[in-house]
Amino acid sequence: MEYSIMGDFNFENYSFEDFFGNYTYNTDLPSILQDSAPCRPDTLDLNKYVVVVIYLLVFLLSLLGNSLVMLVVLYSKIGRSVTDVYLLNLAIADMLFALTLPIWAISKVKGWIYSTILCKMVSLLKEVNFYSSILLLACISVDRYLAIVHATRTLTQKRHWVKFICLGIWALSLILSLPIFVFRKAFYPPNSSPVCYEDIGANTTKWRMVMRVLPQTFGFLLPLLVMLFCYGFTLRTLFQAHMGQKHRAMRVIFAVVLVFLLCWLPYNLVLVADTFMRLGVIKETCERRNDIGRALDATEILGFLHSCLNPLIYAFIGQKFRHGLLKIMAIHGLVSKEFLAKDGRPSFVGSSSGNTSTTF
């Protein structure tokens, strides 16, 4: 789930005008001349084969974990809540992103050996994953805020609203990701590995700022402010009312949000620093440009890890998720019913908003 709509900064995704400075060119292919390059990029210290191994491990863990999450949520029809529907969509988003990781792993070693269409498609999936994830988390925060702070049944009893909200989130994520789909292409420079990058013509600086500022505002900053507002008041209500049981039921949700921020906030902060540098707010130097490039590569890997972490959160913190998974395994004879009885079924934490307790 990469924030590439505002700039992809992996070597294979990095546009050559970013590597070699701003210059004009008359064709679609930027001229890469030895004497015209004011800055030379440093080679990333991270071993590319280590990165490939990380990508493949994340792919396998994400595929397995999110498949189990989808299975448990879809199986738990009776106890399924609004939050569970959002978490189901979150698992789908992570699954779609995970499917692109083997392709990016191969491109780390061989460069972009695929077509422009595949370049556009896998880049689009990464963007949709990021935006849908943070928008879904924002919707979960609003649902928890309404359920606990205002004790309202408005969203939770009208289940068809949730379906439309999820469809709206996917549509908005797709719209925010369209620029990367339009501008991405496979590029085969001479004397260099092929790359998948944004070809945005001569107006490089202007378009890069548009492709960064607008999506980062509507796809990251505003949803983050919504989450901070909703969870701030939710926590205050829980502590003031001494609602310990409900507070325990919120641990999974808070952990999911916290892990998302830990994985993606560093990347976005580095991206903001890069934007400020290109706008002239902070002085641009070759050393600073290379430092930011290395930081973007490292923090991007951290962001990629996010797609496999949510199932681990559910498994270690979500008692109801564990029980739901064991129940499915018992039905299919993978564990004994005696073992399931020993696990015990945790009671759902009710609330004045109706069916808002979560399977996790």
UniProtKB/TrEMBL annotation:
Transmembrane segments: 49-74, 86-106, 130-149, 161-183, 218-239, 251-270
InterPro entries: CCR1-9-like, Chemokine_CXCR2, Chemokine_CXCR_1/2, GPCR_Rhodpsn, GPCR_Rhodpsn_7TM
GO terms under cellular component: external side of plasma membrane
Keyword Transmembrane: yes
Keywords from the UniProt entry: Cell membrane, Chemotaxis, Disulfide bond, G-protein coupled receptor, Glycoprotein, Membrane, Phosphoprotein, Receptor, Transducer, Transmembrane, Transmembrane helix
Membrane topology value: Multi-pass membrane protein
Pfam family, one: 7tm_1
GO molecular function: C-C chemokine binding; C-C chemokine receptor activity; C-X-C chemokine receptor activity; interleukin-8 binding
Localization per Swiss-Prot or TrEMBL: Cell membrane
Residues annotated as domain G-protein coupled receptors family 1 profile: 65-314
A single GO BP: positive regulation of cytosolic calcium ion concentration
Role, per record: Receptor for interleukin-8 which is a powerful neutrophil chemotactic factor. Binding of IL-8 to the receptor causes activation of neutrophils. This response is mediated via a G-protein that activates a phosphatidylinositol-calcium second messenger system. Binds to IL-8 with high affinity. Also binds with high affinity to CXCL3, GRO/MGSA and NAP-2.
Assembly and interaction partners: Interacts with IL8. Interacts with GNAI2.
Family: Belongs to the G-protein coupled receptor 1 family.
Protein name: C-X-C chemokine receptor type 2
Originating organism: Pteropus vampyrus (Large flying fox)
Protein's gene: CXCR2
